[in-house]
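Lab meeting prep.
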Amino acid sequence: MEVSATTKYVRMSPTKARDLANEIKGLPVADALRITEFNARKAAVHIGKTLKSAIANAENNEGLLVEGLYVKNAIVDGGPMMKRYRPRARGMASPIQKKTSHITVIVTDTP
């Protein structure tokens, strides 16, 4: 049975979080938690929180055992961008895009 958790509007570029999300795909939950806990990247904190939420959803809502869970998929999609402008020379302005992400982690009881 598949159980998911989603974190939306994380103030981080999706490309910076995708490589860590790809790294935990297919792993047992304990190994994935260990990777996110000891990784120094900002994405590890947010992906770890979403993974813990998916584990809690599987345990409390579906009655699954934590020891038998695997990460089926970890998806990082782009969210809305906040558009800001920076002043430049001769009265001009250059745009700045502050990107956001939506993180989804899907856990399952079959490897």
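Slide two material, second protein:
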Amino acid sequence: MPLSEFELIERYFRRCGAARADVRLGVGDDAALLETGAGMTLVAAVDTLVEGVHFPPGCSAESIGHRALAVNLSDLAAMGARPAWALLALTLPSAAASWLEGFTHGFAALAEAHQVALVGGDTTHGPLAVTVTLLGQVPAGTALRRGGAAQGDVLFVSGTPGDAAAGLALEQGRLAAGEHSEYLRRRFLFPTPRVAFGERLRGYASACIDVSDGLLADAVKLARASGCGVELDAERLPLSAALGALGTRQARELALAGGDDYELCFAVTPGALGRLEAELPAAQWGYARIGALCAAPTVRVRDATGELSVAATGYDHFSAPQP
């Protein structure tokens, strides 16, 4: 016998995520009641994942649950915020118990790891789509933004961009499988949002953005928000061994233009570099210097041979081919 909407909520979502003392009233009422700390700024982000657009048909339910929250966690990380509460709107073609078990396992595991409480949402019938609204907090006046950097600031990126794009290509059969396939697939299916690093970047970064549409495209967004241009050094790109095995040219293209990395691209003033390197060592936090901001509207990518031709547009929902 199929579950009713209310039975579905009670069984799978009533206690999904972390238990928090600041949740006065959560799932089950008309709205949630949440306490925010004095001297804190509320930070809000929302993202929708649609089957066939953000993940291939047949993608595992556990991955969908993980990614639905991860993309929002990455947005809050780029603001230097600490996540706290989530709202989930879930549109399902059917209330299949096995799918819901996998989805809630993926969502809840990541929520608990970041002390996020699911406090409400909605469930409807229709083509598979997941919308998560994530709320968090940051001390007043300390939030990171895309704007705020200046010409001469140094650009960095966390992690190893391009892995997720290669993983998606493997999922879609556009890339031949090899010895590193499982690693690359997991980088797409289960991305790691850099929440702790984003919090630590407050006081060091002059600007920050999460890398979701492609490193170059998102670096350009940061630069333009700051009234600058951008120059990247392709030889400084931090490529994983798995991505590098595809060959330098393809690896660099994926690192620069591929999406779904959910890493952080951030700028640091020359005067703050010493503090950054001493207090947040790159070896510990996993980031690399990749270029600098320059006079607008310049967008250049160089290597030892000269300037490279790389599209800086990134993913666009209304012009890009669908997966």
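Talking points for slide two:
The CA atoms of residues 72 and 277 lie 28 Å apart.
The longest strand covers residues 40-50.
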